[in-house]
Amino acid sequence: MKTGLPASLRRDGHPLKRLYPGWLAVARYRGPAGLDVLTLQHEKTGQEACWWLTPDDEILACHALALDSEWNGEVLSAIGPALQQLSAALLSGESPLPEDSDALHEALISLTSLPSIAQLQLLGLWFQATTSSSLHLLSPSSLMQEDDIQPDTSLPPRRLRSLLDTRPSGPHTLTSSPFSGRILRTELTMPTEKGVACRFSDEEAGQTFYLLWYSSTGQTTPPKDQTPVVYYPGDQLLLGDGPFVPLVPVFLLSWFISNPHCVEELKHAHPFRLEDYGVGRASALWEEMAPVTLPSIEKHEETGQTRTSFPFSSEIWVRSSFFGAGQAAGLPDRERWKKSPPPNHEEKTDAGHENHDEP
Fold it and tell me: Where do the segments described as Disordered lie (predicted)?
């Protein structure tokens, strides 16, 4: 729904009556600190933009990062406390998960009520003011081949290189911990603005990190041959290539804000277990099989059958459900095979080789 330009819209005190060709005003939203947001879209390309307005329709900036210092401070005061809590509990995992996820979501209502483009701008504004100065950008090509510590991270290069070999498998994505080397399973699968991210936590090390694979917006399955971007909040480390690497934390924050249910998912997440992938369940097959009543060992001994070390004539084999199933299907046991071999059964000749001659 097109809202049209406000009649009293002004820039630098002068009325603004029209837009560049192809651009249309889409909607107006109430933002934090008394600001309004006017979203615009190009009717042919679909490109989006937003203007930040005062309540009396004065255009302040065409991007949140361009707000002057006074409005910048007002906005950060309005959104900062809730974002700090969200970042500590969900993004970095340095504080416990909130008991009441709804209360946290309500504290962020000034962000959640905004369209994505405006929300990302505000998150970028907050992240730049609080964290960007300590952000370490590292290219995969710069990883040293030796197992020495990089100057910008506490993690060994060999373990960082191992992370780059991780391939996405949705909720079943596995990787090795860069802290302990343990196998970790993703806690969350997060489709973001520029790719699909997975959140991992090493409970023993008390650390959280992310892998993000670039993909189109809305795509939940990125290409499997793609190298991920690594984000480790503990060192504020971003390992990857591309123009969007510095924005990965902003994309993750936006996803957390838009998905408050993730708090419950994290509370019920469990670490990687071999049995979840079928390992260690072979013995359960014996418990699930119905018992089969077969002749006792004593009866076989009375008819001349003796116990041997051959496993298929042992008591375990006789009483097993597999042997019972074979009998039900009409398959011969070992002794019957010896006494009456099938007509096509090959026999050895006196020379000790198999006889393949026609009878």
Answer: 328-359
